[in-house]
Amino acid sequence: MAKCLTKLLGKRPSSRLSELYITVQPHTFRRFLMRNVLGVGVTPDKKPEELKKPTLRFIQFLRGNDERKRLGVVSEDGNTFAELSGGACVSNDFLAFLKQGFSSQELLHKIDRVQCERMNDRLILLPPIINPGKIICVGLNYKGHCDEQNKQPPTDPVFFSKFGNALVGPLDCVVAHSVTKRLDWEVELAVVISRKCRHVQCKDAMNYVFGYTIAQDISARDWQKRNGGQFFIGKSMDTFCPIGPAVVHSSMIGDPHNLYLKCTINGEEKQSGNTREMIFRIDELISRLSSFLTLLPGDLILTGTPKGVGMYHKPPQYLKVGDVIQSEIQCVGKMINQVIAP
Q: How far is CA 283 from the centre of its chain?
């Protein structure tokens, strides 16, 4: 987890939210956290008894200098959190936690029994899933993204993969590796699989979704076009898959096919769309994949991106060192990732 938002901090980068807050917002730390990472837009200036309780929004985090990974939940407004792995018979690792198979009602009961804390500046956010077995991506899954390339929408889903080394957290940095000169952005809704899934029909597929998070499918476009069109090098360089800030349980989302998503670079909006624009919906993607391979708890499916990627601007626009990428999806939250030199 090493580096975070050097340009904004003007010093050694860090994943500590308080250090990010110092220069990003002239308000309270909690207001920054709520509006820019975990929360959904509620005033933070409440009395303790009025603070919202944590709910089914799962985070992985560290406390200060303690290197022990922890699992917790946060409130919708981002003001409070509770550590589940501290005494609720819950694993401290999100992937192991999924395999424990708790129902949403069991989880809500456990949340009610653990101590609720105010969000504080000693919290260090990690990727909400640190070691997924698979990171499966879907290309050309928004009509607008097909149109900006002058391509017909595909008749079958276009699947490719990213590797686990690409994962970083919602406030971590993206490295502009020296081997690429065409670094691009793609905001995406990511699906988190809840349990073993094989030969599943569309009508049952959503029962295998635990929840959703944000993914930023960073791409080295020059390498994406080389090697005979093999995507994985251009998609899987270190830090090329920020995810977070939380995994939001499916019961908290409503309709995942009606969520606004957008991406801004240095405050300028580049992508704006809605998940209803997907060509292949989530149930069909899961059903198709499960007909070929076994999906397991914690597997990630990145469901595609709307129009507005840098490569297809006129002239093309690419990320450079110092740029700040903000990715946002309705009901899920936001990520802020800065591009840094190797």
A: 20
The answer to whether 220 and 322 are in contact (CB under 8 A) is: no
Helix axes 29-36 and 17-24, enclosed angle (nearest 10): 90
Rounded Cα distance, 312 and 296, in Å: 35
- Look at strands 300-302 and 135-139 and give their pairing: parallel
Band (pLDDT 50/70/90 cuts) for residue 226 is confident
Alpha-carbon distance of 127 to 169, in angstroms, equals 4
Between 38 and 218, where is the model more confident? Answer: 218
Contact 182, 211 (CB under 8 A): no
Please count the helices (runs of H) and the strands (runs of E) in the chain: 10, 19
Query: From CA 98, how far away is CA 314, in angstroms rounded?
Result: 44
Q: How many CB atoms lie within 10 A of CB 12?
A: 10
Q: In terms of C-beta density within 10 A (0-12 exposed, 13-18 middle, 19 or more buried), how is residue 201 classed?
A: exposed
> 3-state DSSP call for residue 277?
helix
What three-state secondary structure class fits 54?
A: coil
Which residues 6+ apart lie within 8 Å of 114 measured at CB? 82, 83, 84, 86, 87, 88
Q: 125 with 17: CB under 8 angstroms?
A: yes
What is the edge-to-edge ordering of all strands in the sheet holding 174-175? 174-175, 333-340, 324-329, 260-265, 268-274
Q: What percent of the chain has pLDDT over 70?
A: 86
Report pTM. 0.89
Closest C-alpha to 324, from 216, 237, 227: 216
Query: Quick one: which of 230, 207, 205 has its CA closest to 220?
Result: 230
Question: In degrees, to the nearest 5, what angle opens at C-alpha 51 toward C-alphas 46 and 54?
Answer: 150
List phi, psi (to 5°) of 228: 70, 25
What does the alpha-carbon distance between residue 238 and residue 198 come to, in Å, rounded to a whole number? 30
Per-residue DSSP letter, 201 = -
Residue 170 has pLDDT above 80, yes or no: yes
